[in-house]
Design a protein that fits this description.
This protein has about 500 residues and is α+β, with helices and mostly antiparallel strands. The chain has helices spanning about 100-105, 210-225, 230-250, 275-285, 345-355, 400-410, 455-465, 475-480; strands at about 35, 70, 120-125, 130-140, 145-160, 160-165, 170, 175-180, 185, 190, 195-200, 205-210, 260, 285-290, 295, 300, 340-345, 360-365, 385-390, 395-400, 415-420, 440-445, 455, 485-490. Helix content is about 15%, strand content about 25%. α2 packs across α4 (about 275-285), α3 (about 230-250) packs across α4 (about 275-285) and α3 (about 230-250) packs antiparallel against α7 (about 455-465). The longest helix is centred in the middle third of the chain and has 21 residues, at about 230-250.
Length: about 500
């Protein structure tokens, strides 16, 4: 993540509607990012990463992506991100009822989206021609938003510095919309809204301009498990909406607002929509989390591992609503508790590969992991590592928890080292001194992701506490994980 300060956000800009297309983190989290991480997915596999990159999250520097919600086979959780902060939640989705195209078209008549802002989603960039179609036909508009023609199916491509329609170069920016309804297909994958194609250095940027609520239909099932309790899905919907608005304001002068990966939020279009997640979006329509009357940077992660963290201990910026709190995630899951086994030679090799070698390891200077609630000079309030010093025959090196997690490929920075002592069968006391022989090193950790904001698995556990008839328990979840926020319907 790039270091940035939270921008001042003017609420009225969030209600303008369509943006103009001017120049310019061992459980997996669902659909997922997450946290994951990740390689951004294109709608067809042919679309690659754009040369214009927007980075998700603004609290400060980090290699983490705010959320990994993709499975390891696919994610994140990218985590995005090179590696995303929280991989996709591992769970079967066969129980989730996927909305069919006809059902989606019927549902679209039940939810008014005219007053919601549009979000510009970068689906990818490509050089190859592609097809765009709609059951009602496709209207083609030029950069002046003037109608050029209508077609049932349109072939689009790049010709020099212009977008070509059916082989003919037309304009540097072209927008395609369904003649009626809100669903079109791009290379066989269905999306809502409109498609804007922009010539950009010999490639065609593919951007889906979609009403925010419709965008959330395709996001929430990717960032949460559709079979979770309704309150958890509703909390995810509000977090995703708030995060999107925050990021839209941040990127309003860029060519697009968000990408489809865990660099921002995973977005699956119409094909990823489910009944339960669509209902969660509809139930919370227009509701946003505010702090000082501005949408917050609503970060979330797969699993807090028992306690979330203060933002200042992760990325350096002290964000008042991103404070460490008790996490209610399932302590028996492989995301909440995990152990990695390695040895001294392998550990030395990883340090060397990262240009952080210290010769033959002698010791690790690190406060032993204790109970959460109190920070130390080298650990945050949750116990997540802020820094650790490795001492060897050739000197010593101090690494941040973020860098150490990346070098060792771990799920979080909430962990400790146990040299020649298996924490699964011992008292759990940390051992940081090497014997110099064939040392075995165990790393016992907790949680998955950066640990800021809402724990998705924690939200799912909290949601089980909702009383019968309590249709707004999602607010209790959000106010627990985001300190001092207010909830307001902004449209």
């Amino acid at each position: 993540m790039k270091t940035k300060q939270l921008p001042l956000m003017i609420m009225t800009t969030l209600l303008l509607g369509i943006h103009s297309f001017g120049t310019v983190d061992a459980a997996q989290a669902v659909g997922k990012s997450g946290t994951k991480p990740a390689v951004s997915k294109s709608s067809t596999g042919a679309i690659g990463k754009s040369s214009v990159k927007a980075v998700r999250g603004t609290v400060g520097k980090s290699t983490f992506k705010p959320l990994v919600t993709k499975p390891a086979s696919k994610p994140v959780t990218k985590p995005k991100v090179a590696q995303s902060a929280a991989p996709k939640i591992a769970a079967s989705r066969t129980t989730a009822a996927v909305v069919t195209k006809n059902q989606v078209e019927q549902a679209s008549t039940r939810v008014r989206v005219e007053n919601t802002p549009d979000v510009r989603v970068l689906l990818g960039s490509r050089r190859q021609d592609a097809s765009v179609s709609s059951a009602s036909g496709v209207t083609v508009l030029n950069s002046a938003n003037s109608k050029i023609e209508n077609h049932k199916v349109v072939s689009v491509g790049i010709r020099g510095n212009k977008i070509a329609i059916n082989g003919k170069a037309v304009d540097s920016v072209v927008t395609l919309k369904p003649v009626s309804g809100d669903i079109f297909t791009f290379e066989g994958k269905a999306y809502r809204g409109a498609l804007t194609l922009r010539a950009n250095n010999g490639t065609m940027m593919v951007i889906n301009a979609v009403p925010l609520e419709s965008y959330l239909y395709g996001v929430v099932p990717q960032e949460a498990i559709p079979s979770w309790p309704a309150a958890a899905l509703e909390a995810q919907a509000v977090a995703a909406r708030t995060y999107a608005l925050h990021t839209m304001e941040q990127n309003k002068n860029q060519l697009y607002d968000v990408s489809t990966s865990t660099d921002h939020q995973v977005y699956g279009g119409v094909s990823g929509e489910t009944h339960s997640t669509t209902a969660a979006v509809n139930h919370t329509k227009g509701i946003v989390m505010l702090y000082n009357n501005r949408p917050i940077n609503a970060l979330f992660h797969s699993d807090g591992g028992g306690y979330t963290e203060d933002s200042v201990n992760v990325w350096g910026n002290d964000i008042p609503y991103l404070k460490g709190v008790k996490d209610y995630s399932n302590s028996n899951s492989s995301a909440s508790n995990w152990i990695v086994s390695t040895n001294r030679h392998a550990l030395e090799g990883k340090l060397n590969a990262a240009s952080k070698g210290v010769g033959k390891l002698k010791s690790i200077q690190l406060t032993p992991l204790g109970n959460p609630g109190k920070a130390t000079f080298d650990r945050g309030v949750s116990g997540r590592i802020k820094s650790a010093t490795f001492v060897g025959t050739a000197g010593k090196v101090t690494l941040s928890g973020d860098d150490l997690r990346s070098i060792l490929g771990l799920k979080s920075t909430l962990f400790d080292f146990y040299v020649n002592h298996n924490p699964a069968s011992s008292t759990g006391k940390a051992y940081h001194t090497f014997t110099g022989k064939n040392d075995t090193v165990f790393i016992k950790g907790h949680g998955w992701g950066h640990g800021l904001g809402m724990s998705q698995w924690g939200a799912a556990e909290m949601a089980k506490k909702a009383g019968t008839g309590d249709t707004n328990y999602y607010q209790t979840i959000l106010k627990h994980y985001y300190s001092g926020i207010t909830l307001k319907k902004v449209y």
